[in-house]
Amino acid sequence: MSTTHGHGGHDDHVTGDTAGTDIVLREGEDAPGRFPNPGFGPHRPRRSDVDPAADKRAERQVVALFAVSVLGTVGFIVAYFAFPLDDSPETLRRSNLFLGLGLAFALLGIGLAAVHWAKSLMNDHEKAEDRHAQRSSDETRAAAVEVLEEGVKDSAIGRRGVLKGALVSSLALFPLTIVLPLIGEVGEDWNVSKLKHTMWARNKKLTIDPTGRPIKAADVTIGSVVHVIPEGLDETDAPLDEKAKAVVLLVRLDPRDIKSEQGEGWSYDGIVAFSKICTHVGCPVALYEQQTHHLLCPCHQSTFDVADSAKVVFGPAKRPLPQLPITVDDEGYLVAQSDFHEPVGPSFWERLR
Amino acid sequence: MKALAARRHDRRAPVVLLLLALLLTGALYAVLSPTSAGAAPAAATADEVETGEKLFQANCATCHGPDATGTDVVPSLVGVGAAAVDFQVGTGRMPMQMNGPQAPAKPVQFDEDQIAALAAYVASLGPGPSVPTAEQVDPALGDPANGMALFRTNCSMCHNAVGAGGALSQGKWAPNLWETTPTHIYEAMTTGPQSMPVFNDVTLTPDEKRDIIAFLDLQGEPTPGGLDLGSLGPVSEGLWAWVVGMGLLIGAAVWIGARSS
């Protein structure tokens, strides 16, 4: 089914002056139902077609590329024996490097040579291959219909109503086995109120992540940052789930630097505690700059001002980080006054504010 | 008695007596004067403090003020301790070369004695963290596994998971830690230089600090996989894959599809 065109031969469909011209539609004209085949452009011979020296040169280039491949293979084999492995990463690295280089040249040489050979030495005559018709022949179609009709007649589905009903029921019910687990396991847990509360509660001690030591207010020096988890986190049923909501960043500022806080008396002597979960999409916000009091989220560069109620000063976050109200207990340990007063982390449908 | 008297005339007797007397004096000195023994290094420090003050007035007072109390934009050095000086001056960050978002590490301008003198002077202004001992920062004594857990929680968000460093806001950055000496790492944690917050001995105990140093000591080694592109993660790897990798693929596709000349 293929037609070979020697030197810029035109297809039979191409008629006169429409060949190769752009179609420009003016008012009142309809677009043509079928664009004419522009055919092939004029054939341009390659250098290797007309100049025997260029042909020879291309051949030598292909041979050289194959030679590169051979050298790569030889290099791989040499490297395999020349760079034995001991336990140090250096030897592994050197071995990998030279094995990889050998492999790269071995395969790249073959590939480049094959393509170069095909492009510059094999013939470059354009060929067109017509599409096959998609429609089957009339006889094939009639035969298929005949087979189907014979099956329907043989099954007597028109007469046996109960059978038909049973077939339809079974086919209609079967997809439930696929759909039910798909829907049933979406999200696993539909208890949205879990998102609104954390394990912080009145008098729950603030402890250091990951050691779990309680923190004395007097031990937090100005400029200090402490990554905080609630006391007893490890005893909960799902410590990682609880931690994901309850992590807090504790910072002590010079009390004179504090411009505002989210609630009256929520800080203790310059010690402020904010949720570490970004209100944008929930990354842990923990890049604290001591001098600017800015808290930076590593994911999308939302920046919060710790000295000013963690207000957003830059980036895509819309809400300040929720502040954890803290105070000290009788022994001087930092404790929470209550849970956060608003849901931590990013927005969700049922958040209401 | 006669024997003793005869011995007394031994020619070696004066030497033995002299040695005994010296020993006795030394022992008495050690027992009776612990306070004065303690005062001896303090006297040396007084010299150091004096030298340090001269160095301070010549090199630091322009910005930090003649009494080191700083201004609105320059921090006061009262109470920053010897550790802060040893870190800032010992890494070349101070004296600051020019104003900017951050004072970068650069070639150190003072020798060890001068740095120690400056540190002694600043330490004399008010109590602050002191320079750690060699044992406190010995990576061989730390637990790198525990150090990794602590580094991940406290440091990795700025300094990268393996300590390769990273960007902060408005031109500031957290530096790479692979070439930083253990002493300077320890001092940075206790003093919180520049943008870095303080991790005092309660937040991270001295043992935990040493664990972190032990973890960092193992980072920055050659990776068996080859080029680690600075261990910066998705940024450098993505740049490489999208620009170099995909560029090569597109170039190859164009070359394969183009007519031979």
Concise account of the structure shown:
The complex is a heterodimer of chains A (353) and B (261). With 353 residues, chain A is of the alpha+beta class. Chain A contains seven helices and twelve strands.
Task: For this entry, give a set of tags.
heterodimer, A: about 350 residues, alpha+beta, Rieske Iron-sulfur Protein, 4-stranded antiparallel beta sheet, about 35% helix, about 10% strand, B: about 260 residues, mainly alpha, Cytochrome Bc1 Complex, Chain D, domain 2, two-stranded antiparallel ribbon, 11 helices, 2 strands
Structural class of chain A: alpha+beta
Using the coordinates above, name the CATH class of the domain at 135-221 in chain B. Mainly Alpha
Across the major sheet of chain A, the strand order is 3-4-5-6
Number of strands of chain A: 12
Q: What is the oligomeric state here? A: heterodimer
Low-confidence stretches of chain B: 34-44
Q: By helix and strand content of chain B, what is the structural category?
A: mainly alpha
For the biggest β-sheet of chain B, the strand order reads 1-2
Overall spatial form of chain B: elongated
Q: Can you tell me the CATH superfamily of the domain at 135-221 in chain B? A: Cytochrome c-like domain
Q: What level of helicity do the residues of chain B show?
A: 40-55%
User: What is the CATH homologous superfamily assignment of the domain at 200-351 in chain A?
Assistant: Rieske [2Fe-2S] iron-sulphur domain
CATH topology of the domain at 135-221 in chain B: Cytochrome Bc1 Complex, Chain D, domain 2
Give the total of beta strands of chain B: 2
Low-pLDDT residue spans of chain A: 1-20
Q: Compute the separation of the termini of chain A in Å.
A: 69 Å
Radius of gyration of chain B: 29 Å
CATH architecture tag of the domain at 200-351 in chain A = 3-layer Sandwich
